[in-house]
Amino acid sequence: MSRFTRELPSSEGTYRSGRLERALDASLPETRAWLVLTGPHPVGLAVTRDLDRPVRVLSALFLVAPVRGRDLGHDVARTVLESAPGWWAVAYQQENRAAAAFWPSVAATFDAGWRRELRSSPSRPDLPPDTWVTFGVGAGSHGPNDR
């Protein structure tokens, strides 16, 4: 994301590690972190939040460059999303062409009626709005206005 947000790492050399730290905290069941392995090799991660809410959020999905373009991203997304059937939301920057192609295709595999909307980032009003896709996963999933 730093490519699109122009954000620099912290003085510790990390990028926004708070989400990952929360997802790894076993006392917070509403969050979850996923390590993606190819054989013994760690090749990516996924982070979810709001698993206890009507709309869950897949807040991060990252794969190292050598494994991109091999459908692994779709496989990981499917595994993560199907772990908690219901309504999901994913945000990305439209300028990120790979994400702009990827997330609508993932949403469409689960829900023909998926939705896209632009939302400003409250913490970064200097950035273009985030693009959010929302969609149902699994039988019996309902949209946020159907509850």
Descriptive account of the structure:
- This protein is α+β, with helices and mostly antiparallel strands.
- Helices cover 24% and strands 31% of the residues.
- The protein has four helices and six strands; from the N terminus they run ααβββαβαββ.
- The chain has a six-stranded mixed beta sheet.
Query: Strand order of the main beta sheet, please?
Result: 1-2-3-4-6-5
Global structural class: alpha+beta
Helix content range: 10-25%
Q: Note the gap between the termini.
A: 33 Å
Element-by-element helix/strand order: HHEEEHEHEE
Number of strands: 6
Rg (CA only)? 15 Å
Whole-number average pLDDT?
A: 85
> Approximately what portion of the residues adopt beta-strand conformation?
25-35%
Largest sheet, in brief, is: 6 strands, mixed
Number of helices: 4
- Catalogue the unreliable spans: none
Apparent shape? globular
